[in-house]
Design brief:
With 192 residues, the protein is an alpha/beta fold. The protein has helices at residues 24-34, 43-47, 80-88, 92-102, 110-114, 127-133; strands at residues 2-7, 12-15, 18-19, 38-42, 59-63, 74-77, 121-123, 139-145, 153-154, 164-169, 173-175, 178-187. The strands form two sheets. Strands 1, 4, 5, 6, 7, 8, 10, 11 and 12 form a nine-stranded mixed β-sheet that branches. The chain has a three-stranded antiparallel β-sheet with strand order 3-2-9, with no helix packed on it. The structure holds NADP nicotinamide-adenine-dinucleotide phosphate.
Amino acid sequence: MKMIAAVDAKWAIGNKGKLLISIPQDMKHFRAHTLGKTVVMGRKTLESFPNQKPLPDRDNIVLTRNPRYEVKGAAVASDIDELFRILRSGSADARAQRTAGKGQSDETDAGGTLLQDTDDVYVIGGETIYRQLLPYCDTAYITKIDYAYEADAYFPNLDEDPEWELADESDEETYFNVCYTFCTYRRKAEKV
Ligand SMILES: NC(=O)c1ccc[n+]([C@@H]2O[C@H](COP(=O)([O-])OP(=O)(O)OC[C@H]3O[C@@H](n4cnc5c(N)ncnc54)[C@H](OP(=O)(O)O)[C@@H]3O)[C@@H](O)[C@H]2O)c1
């Protein structure tokens, strides 16, 4: 399982239910990673999307403790155990609901089969979901933005986590006056 997030200089990810900044190249990067894959998110992150709709062309799984919560085009998990049951089940629920949400679908079946392989599962936020699923992840794609915004939601600081290491970092890119890099963090191999 992998994580993908955009963090600021203090590992902040959001404020008042919204992203800190939207960088077009970062949105492309997010799309390139997640398209055709499974995305796992908290209910608040889903509700931060345009029209509160699941992401198209991906199997969406939303975590909420509200047993009556329904969202067209996404599977709903009431806890982490149920999330893993859905992932292990090989997608039936998520795929069925995604297809139902899209009406007639001409997509490939990729999303369905991928669900059995947690390597193609991306945790996409927000803070509560990143923190709970970090122990199950081995890779984190982190867009690091070199500015500290006013914020109320944070990603766990992987630079201070002895179990994680920075494996790769892109050249610095800029969006107006904002500098950012695309980083890959990996869980360190266990010592024998
Ligand atoms: N920069 C980035 O890359 C990035 C990415 C994603 C999100 N964000 C930002 O992060 C912020 C939202 O983060 P957040 O932590 O406030 O909200 P969140 O993690 O998106 O959603 C929290 C909700 O998820 C549900 N939940 C959490 N743990 C659960 C569990 N174990 N079982 C079942 N349901 C569970 C609960 O829903 P119920 O209340 O319905 O029970 C909870 O209120 C926003 O500002 C958003 O823009 C940033």
